[in-house]
Design a protein that fits this description.
four-stranded antiparallel β-sheet; 159 residues; alpha+beta
Length: 159
C-alpha cells in the first residue's frame, strides 16, 4: 500500500468507529507494519485535515461578516474598511518547540514538554500502550498548534 492508500484506509476505518488498535491489526493483516505511535499521529493528522475542510465548507456556505454588513448597509452609506487588530498590530505566532525529557516519568514510555506557537505550554507524554497525550496545559492549543506539534515531535523523535 502507498502512503496515501494507508491514510485513506485509516480515515475510512476511523470514520466507521474502529479503534486504532483494530486498525493497526487490519493494516498488519494487509502486510503493512506500522507502530501505534505512527498510527496515532497519522490519525490525528487526518482528523485535523477533515476538520479544516469542514470549517472551510461552513465558511464558504455563510457570507463573511463584512459581506453581511455591506449587504445590510443602505446604498448611500459608504462601506466601512476592515479594522486592524485591537492592539493595533497583527498577531504574530512564535515557533512551536518540542523537547524530549532525558528522564522519563514513571508509567510513560517517553515524555517531554512543548511550547506552542500561540504561547500555550504543556507537557506531552506517550504511555505504555503508545497513546499520545498532553498534560498540565497552560491553555487550549488551537488546530495549527496541534499540527505544528505533530511535525516537531516527529523531528524530535527522528521519525
Amino acid at each position: 500500500m502507498t502512503q496515501e492508500e494507508i491514510k485513506q484506509f485509516i480515515a475510512d476505518k476511523t470514520a466507521a468507529g474502529m479503534s486504532l488498535t483494530a486498525i493497526q491489526d487490519a493494516l498488519s493483516a494487509q502486510g503493512v507494519k506500522i507502530r501505534f505511535m505512527e498510527l496515532r499521529l497519522l490519525a490525528a493528522e487526518i482528523e485535523s485535515v477533515l476538520e479544516k475542510k469542514e470549517a472551510e465548507k461552513a465558511a464558504a456556505a455563510a457570507p463573511a461578516p463584512e459581506e453581511k454588513k455591506a449587504e445590510e448597509a443602505p446604498a448611500s452609506a459608504p462601506a466601512e474598511p476592515a479594522s486592524p487588530a485591537p492592539d493595533g498590530a497583527a498577531k504574530v505566532r512564535g515557533a512551536t518547540t518540542v523537547s524530549v525529557s532525558p528522564i522519563q516519568r514513571p508509567g510513560f514510555a517517553m515524555s517531554g514538554s512543548v511550547s506552542f506557537g500561540s504561547g500555550v505550554t504543556a507537557d506531552w507524554y506517550v504511555d505504555q500502550t503508545g497513546r499520545l497525550g498532553l498534560d498540565n496545559a497552560s491553555g487550549q492549543p488551537d488546530e495549527q498548534d496541534i499540527q505544528e506539534f505533530q511535525i516537531e515531535l516527529r523531528k524530535a523523535l527522528g521519525m
